Each structure stands twice: as C-alpha cells, then as structure tokens.
Amino acid sequence: MPDPADPWTEKEVHAKLLWFQKPIGDALKCAACRLPPRIDRQIRTMRQYPSHLPSCALRLLAALRAISVCGAVSVCGATGCSHADRMRPTIEAYSRGAYAKAASTYEPLLKERRKSNKDRLLYELEAGSIDRALGAEAHSPEVDAQSMAAFGFADEETWQYLDSEPDIRISEQAAAILTNQTVITYRATTYDRIMCSTYQALNHLDRGDLASAGVSLRRAYEWQRDAVAKNAKEIEGLEAKADEAAREKNYDAKAAMNDPRTKSGLDSAYGAIRDMTGYAEFAVPYSTYLQSLQQMLTGRSDDAAQATVGFRKVAGMLRESDRTYVLEDARAGEDASIGKRPPPMVYILVESGMGPALEEFKISIPLFIRQVPYVGASFPVLKFKPGGPSGFTARAGSASYASTQLTDMDAVIAGDFNRRLPAIIALTLISSASKAVGTYFLQEAALNRNKETAWLVSIAGAIYQVATNSADLRIWLTLPKEVLYARFPAPADGMISLDLGDGQRIGPIAVESNGSTVVHIRVPSSGATPALRTMRFPVH
Length: 540
What we know:
Layout: H1 10-29, H2 37-47, H3 55-70, H4 75-78, H5 83-95, H6 99-113, H7 120-138, H8 141-159, H9 167-175, H10 190-206, H11 210-249, H12 253-258, H13 260-270, H14 285-297, H15 301-317, H16 324-337, E1 345-352, E2 357-366, E3 374-383, E4 392-396, E5 399-402, E6 404-408, H17 409-449, H18 451-468, E7 482-489, E8 495-500, E9 505-510, E10 515-523, E11 531-538
C-alpha cells in the first residue's frame, strides 16, 4: 500500500503509473530522433516532483531524455519497422518509374530477409516485380533471370500449402494473441499466389516458352480452386480460435465490437472497404484471361476450345461496357476450335497504378474494468493510392482502339481483406485487451506490495505493450491498381503506338504482321517511365 505520508493517494499513484506508461510508449514509438514537445513536457513535469517518484523512475526519465538528445530513439531500433516503413524508399522510386533506384534500395532489404523464412516470401514477391520492371527497361537477361528466380522461389514455397489443411495458420494465429499478428510467418494471400504464378507465366512468355507459361497459369487456377474449397473452413477456424481465446482470457469480444466508441471507430475505418467485394470465387480476371490467351497462342484446336470457355468466364466477370474485346476473343476461339486460322492479332496489357498499402490506425477498446475502462488497440486498414493512367488508345495504321478495364486489383485485394476482416478484428481485440488487463493486474498486485516494484512493473508493461501493440501491415506493395486491355488486328506495316491517359506516347512498337504479339506495359503512376515488353509469336 502507498505510504500514508505520501501526498499522492493510492488512486493517484495508480493513475500516475498509467500516465507514466504513456511517455515511455510514445517515446518508443517516436519516429523522430528527438522526443516530441508534448512528451518532453510530460517528462519535465514528472521530474519536478522527485519526492513522489522512486529512484528507478527517475533513472529511466533521465535515460529517456539522454536518449532523445543523442537521437537513439527510433521506430526501427525500439519496436521494429513495418513492411511499409522499410519499403518506403523503394516504393517511392518504383512508383515514379525509377526502377534501377528501386532495385538498389531494395537489395539490402532482400538480402536481410533471405536470412529468415518469416517474411522472405513477401520480399521475394516484391523482388520479382521490381526486377521484372527493371529487366524490361534495361533489356537485361540477367535481371530477367533474377525476377524468374524470385517468383520461382515464392511459387514453390507456397505450392506446399495447396490442398493442405488450414490448421497450421490457425495455430499460429492463436499463438500471436500473446504478441501480435506480425510474428506469424507470411504465407501469402490467395491473390498473392495467383499473381505470383501469373507473373511467372509472363516471364515464360517473354522467352517464348508457351508450355512453361501454361504450367504456371494452371497453377494460378489451382490456387483459385484451392481457395474456394477451403476458405470458408479457414475463416470458421480462425473465428473459432478467437472465441476460444476470448473465453480463456475472459474477454467478451462481441460486446467490445458493439461498444459505441469501438463500433464508431471500426465503422469509420472500414465502412467504405466493406462494400468492395472483389470477383466471385477468388477469381482474378487478368490471370484467367492470360491462361485463355496462352491456349490460343499454341495454335491447337483443342486448346482453342478451352480458351473459348475461359474467355466467356472472363466476360462474365466484367462490366458490360468492358466485355467487347473479350467476347471477340471468345468468337475467335470458337473459330479456331473448328480449324479456322485466326488472323494476326495484337494484344495490349497495361498494368496501371499501384495497389493499396496497409496502414495502422488506433481506436479505444473497452476493458470492462472500472479503473481502466478503455485502452488503445492497433488495427490494419487498406489505404488506396491515386491511379496511374486511366486508359490508353492504341493506334494501328489509320485505326484506333480504346482500352477497357480487364481487372480491378483494388477490388481483388479489398475482397480478400474483407473475408479475413472479422477474424482480424476479433483477434486484435482479444490480444490488445488481454495484454492490457494482464499488465493492469500485475501493477495492482505490485502496488499492494511495494511502490518501487509497481514502477518497474509499469515500465515493463509499457515496453511490452508498445512492442506488441502493432498491426500486421505486410502486403505486396508493387502490384498494380488495375489492368487495362485492348486487342485488334495486326497492321500490315507491323507498327503500332499507344497514347496513355497521362499524355505519354509509347512507340512506334514493332509487332508481328504474320502472327500474334502480346505487348505488356507497367506504368506505376501518371508520368512514370513505362516498362515495356513485346512478346512476338510468329506463325510458322
């Protein structure tokens, strides 16, 4: 119990313990080299009353000020940078089309992450995208090989989870309740796996290897099928684990979600995102389309019949205004399936803009304890980025062809996020609340024994909660915002050009006048340097 001679009452001592945690926590979270003025003032105020603070607290306050002066307090040093923090210089360079700069800033990150399996998969996906863009710009077979190796590692690493039970992930989620979601090994989302196989297929098409491209695209389809088969079971399992953890921790997560303050915060963050459903059955139209196109390019009538079915599936996924070209593809597939030779064609695929990032936001959640009614909890939320060129016009001879949207990747990513969101919210609530409640009762017990010990418990509690109260912000950042598309007959002179919606003109581009050409372009933002690849398939 507190000393009766102490001018602070027991209630005030406990309040000061909680207040003392705030400057420590903010200091540990501070991204700047010096403590913010507000935190500095809190520490100065507490130092004005040394008779009320035990020696351990005074020593820590002095250390905090010394650390702030010498510039040693940083996010990365104290609590660990998020994926977005580490990737920021790379993404800034990549988004403006400075692919060589992006690759150079990324190289040490990738080297470090290759030492551990926890995040390596995600970093290999980013490496594959960056090297693919750089290889197109630099016309470098060596860089292209690096892209293929990165996607190859990610593809094989995830392939082991095909048809596997989701219990591995569920058990990790349960263990993360004591820490946070960032400790879980990154195993990739469904769309990660589909897009990894899709990009590897594009790498094979760059080399003219239709057979290997077909293998990769079949893998992409298998990931879609796998998700349909077991997603519901995995979500149910995660929610069951959350319910079980809530009972063990004696915390009512459902009541917390219905708390007015918590509900308002969640609705404000997730309201618009919840309306984004993505495509049915985990489909990514871009990948399905490329599989059908690969089948058409083989020149075999049985493959053309399969391609026809695929093109029709894609048409059903798109808005009516975006179906024209794909329906033309389906008619061409029908003709090819009965032996009619398709005319020379040009297929334009433009990956525009940058997909969303994950950001952390904090809201107050109820602890259902009178002395400490609320505590802060960190949740992930998707942050959508401004688009790249909103369209393009292809020109061939005297004809012009306007683009349509083939895939809304923002919708794909948001749809996957929404499927997992209820479990994310429940597990975050339980994890944050259980840690805060545990710290509170440890402080309470220590306070009843020795006030000096209570300060130490308060300090340890602040460090523990700050170190573990972080949202999982890992996401594949170099994916596009959308994929645009056009198809048209190859011109007799074998030359085309493109006018992008941001005013850039690309071309002239040489295409096959007696065969098919796939033109693939990555434009991360308006005005960014386009990364262009031309894949030519002449008829022999």
